[in-house]
Amino acid sequence: MAQTIFTKILAGEIPCHKVYEDDKVLAFLDINPLSRGHVLVIPKEPAETLDQLSDDSAAAIGRVLPRLSRAVMAVTGARHYNVLQNNGVPAHQAVMHVHFHIIPRFDDSGLGIDWPAGKLVDGAQLAQAIAAKL
Ligand code: 5GP
Description:
Blueprint: H1 5-10, E1 18-21, E2 25-29, E3 39-43, H2 55-76, E4 80-84, E5 100-105, H3 123-133
Bound molecules: guanosine-5'-monophosphate.
């Protein structure tokens, strides 16, 4: 995997405002927050997108996401938030190292979402095909 800005943060070559660290995970404040308390949670394992991440690292992130979310909500006073995880440039991924955003939602700031919902037409077949790939 190519070096990214997050690789450098993990290596301590670039500073960050750290909020959490364990042997598999680092969490720190986003440098360009969508709202106050916007936190990034990244695996120490080098992986570009979520599908490339090991079960161990995924579990380690999953274990701390709720705790980190609670802390962010408690400190910012936000009652609502989004957890966002982008994969691939067309999906708005700018840093090619897996990361989860915790983004508090306030009346005037947070994540704006365009959600062009369609209709599910081939649900049974699609669900079966995905299940067969697992
Ligand atoms: P993406 O669009 O890839 O899901 O989000 C990448 C995030 O990384 C952005 O929200 C951006 O503000 C954040 N970011 C980029 N460079 C740095 C940096 O050097 N330090 C920190 N703390 N955040 C960064």
